[in-house]
From TrEMBL:
InterPro entries: 4pyrrol_Mease (IPR000878), 4pyrrol_Methylase_sf (IPR035996), 4pyrrole_Mease_sub1 (IPR014777), 4pyrrole_Mease_sub2 (IPR014776), Cbl_synth_CobJ/CibH_dom (IPR006363), Nit/Sulf_reduc_fer-like_dom_sf (IPR036136), NO2/SO3_Rdtase_4Fe4S_dom (IPR006067), NO2/SO3_Rdtase_4Fe4S_sf (IPR045854). Residues 5-215 form the Tetrapyrrole methylase domain. This is Precorrin-3B C(17)-methyltransferase. The lineage of its organism: Bacteria, Bacillati, Bacillota, Bacilli, Bacillales. It is an enzyme of class 2 (transferase). GO terms for biological process: methylation. GO terms for molecular function: precorrin-3B C17-methyltransferase activity. CDD domains: Precorrin_3B_C17_MT. Pathway: Cofactor biosynthesis; adenosylcobalamin biosynthesis.
Length: 560
């Protein structure tokens, strides 16, 4: 008689979380082989099976014994906690079989029965921390060199995976979890939510919600799984929740996100969503839309997108919520918050800052205000464009922005907009042209254009701030302006703008510039830089484009 080897993942430990197939396979077996504690966990299922109990470290002999018994014609159940294919017995059983030259069609029959792995069981107790791309890392260096584990932690940290740490710590192995925290703190905020679950769905279940900074202050052992959130994981009412997607950035001057909340859940915007399986032509159902309208502050609790006859996952979730809360159709928030208000996601806010058009110095108070605004989790980046770019997360962007403005800081949008880059007018000693710069800033600063457009504005013929090297250059000289158009600011073939006019009367400058820039804003192709646009249209405000000299290029030393 052909023997059978079932490698069974029995899930976290409770009877209810074991699959029907796992239960059957255990009951159908003649022999049950497993680590002592596991045999005790499934004892309620056993009738007269032979039991082979072994200690924790005897995995290889357990696998060999299982194969031996199956070869003798028995039905053998090898039991593993969680899923047998995740740091479990499945691979080991196959290794033993491979060594013996076993073939699928011959020899013992092998059946791997899946179970709920710790990443899933512990996640369910914490809330919904996994949700998005996640990985498991075992901190046990018993069979894996620590250098490899370290690399994986680095990679997972850098790539913003949600991480479930298995085998995080034992009596002897205590350094690994400390090192892991140190590595992850290089990539994640100390405030990153961390869930520590001991003995999920077992008698001594214990759940702790903490942060990356404080995680080591809690009991972590071999029966624990540690779940580390990604950069968008939040804590809500004692639950750890990772949103399905990343929040989009907001910049100044944009009323709404690039994707509006309800669009975030469109199949094309979230290709991994279940809704994608549905027929196209999805529309927000009227009911879901009404719920969103009734809960404007819960900005991210949004309408599902689906065919009216086939609701999508979020629509179903909203429907379930509304039934559970008894708020169906009522003008109440879709999600009640812990503290009486309504839960609000933090927004990622991005903007540029400078002390002024001509002013290049930041005061201590301004720096302090910036540091406070950015906080631990935000960043302040200095750029080649007389601007710092600030990225921060807040649920109250108006307050953040008005505090910075209150410090006299000039805030601007980033991206494909017009930016005026003025010089410092020799510390404002040559300040006659400043009002013209300010007028241009007021009219054009922040205007959306096909591609970022820098206008250099220099207050004397020295042009030491390099106005002629910008997309558009303006130089004040002898009470008039010189104009340069179509600088190519980057690349190997970079060149200055073409001098197209000298002696423009100051009162005409703003009008000319307005017409040029607004025409580019309207006619430029998406992503078309200004110099390319100028070359394409050949003429702007009667200024004719001239081709830049062609480079004589040397043949490369190593041939073409
Ligand atoms: N095959 C198992 C993992 C075995 S490695 C699975 O798929 O879940 C052993 C590690 O799994 C433990 O150190 C712990 O990190 C985790 N683990 C297994 N069962 C658990 C439970 N009930 N609660 C918390 N963690 C558990």
């Amino acid at each position: 008689m052909r023997g059978r080897l079932s490698v069974i993942g029995f899930g976290p430990g409770s009877f209810e979380h074991m699959t029907q197939r796992a239960k059957e396979a255990i009951q159908e077996s003649d022999v049950v082989i497993g680590y002592n504690t596991y045999v005790d966990l499934v004892r309620g299922l056993l009738n007269d099976q032979q039991i082979v109990r072994t200690g924790m470290t005897e995995e290889v002999s357990r696998a060999q014994e299982a194969v031996r018994q199956a070869e003798a014609g028995k039905k053998v159940a090898v039991i593993s906690s969680g899923d047998a294919g995740v740091y479990g017995m499945a691979g080991l059983v196959y290794e033993v079989l491979m060594e013996k030259g076993w073939r699928r069609g011959e020899g013992v029959e092998v059946d791997i029965i899946p179970g709920i792995s710790a990443i899933n069981s512990t996640a369910s107790l914490l809330g919904a921390p996994v949700m998005h791309d996640a990985c498991t890392i075992s901190l046990s260096d018993h069979l894996t060199p620590w250098e490899i584990i370290e690399k994986r932690i680095e990679a997972a940290g850098a790539a913003d995976f949600v991480i479930a740490l298995y085998n995080p710590r034992s009596g002897k192995r205590t350094r690994q979890i400390v090192e892991t925290q140190r590595i992850l703190l290089k990539y994640r905020s100390p405030q990153t939510p961390v869930g520590i679950v001991k003995s999920a769905y077992r008698d001594r279940e214990h759940i702790v919600l903490t942060t990356l900074a404080d995680m080591l202050e809690h009991d972590i052992g071999m029966l624990t799984t540690v779940v580390i959130g990604n950069s968008s994981t939040v804590v809500y009412d004692g639950l750890m929740i990772t949103p399905r997607g990343y929040q989009r950035k907001y910049t100044l001057g944009e009323e709404t996100q690039a994707l509006k909340p309800h669009e975030r859940l469109r199949p094309e915007a979230e290709p991994w969503a279940l809704a994608q399986e549905e027929p196209h032509g999805a529309a927000v159902s009227a009911e879901a839309e009404a719920m969103v309208a009734a809960a404007p502050a819960a900005a991210e609790v949004v309408a599902a997108v689906s065919e009216p006859r086939r609701p999508g996952p979020l629509e179903l979730a909203l429907e379930a919520l509304s039934l559970a809360l008894g708020t169906r159709g009522a003008a109440e928030p879709a999600v009640p918050a812990a503290g009486g208000g309504v839960f609000r996601y933090e927004e990622v806010l991005e903007f540029a800052v400078r002390p002024g058009l001509a002013e290049k110095r930041l005061t201590a108070a301004q720096l302090a205000a910036l540091a406070e605004a950015a906080g631990e989790r935000g960043s302040v980046e200095y750029t080649p464009h007389h601007q710092l770019v600030v990225r921060l997360r807040t649920d109250d962007k108006e307050t953040v922005l008005s505090r910075l403005r209150g410090q006299g800081l000039m805030l601007e949008p980033v991206g494909d907009v017009v930016q005026l880059k003025a010089c410092d007018f020799c510390n404002l000693e040559k300040a006659e042209s400043v009002p013209y710069a300010e007028k241009l800033q007021a009219q054009l600063g922040g205007l959306k254009v096909p591609k970022e457009l820098k206008i250099g504005f220099n207050g004397c013929g020295m042009a030491c701030y390099g106005a002629v090297k910008e997309d558009i250059g303006i130089v004040y000289r002898r009470e008039k302006f010189d104009l340069f158009l179509g600088g190519k600011t980057v690349g190997r073939t970079a060149h200055a703008g073409q001098p197209v006019a000298e002696g423009i009367p100051p009162e005409e400058l703003a009008d000319i510039l307005n017409r040029i820039v607004r025409r580019y804003a309207e006619e430029g192709h998406p992503n078309e830089r200004f110099h390319k646009y100028f070359a394409r249209v050949k003429e702007l405000e009667q200024y004719r484009h001239q081709d830049a000299p062609v480079l004589v290029s040397d043949p490369a030393v190593c041939g073409d």
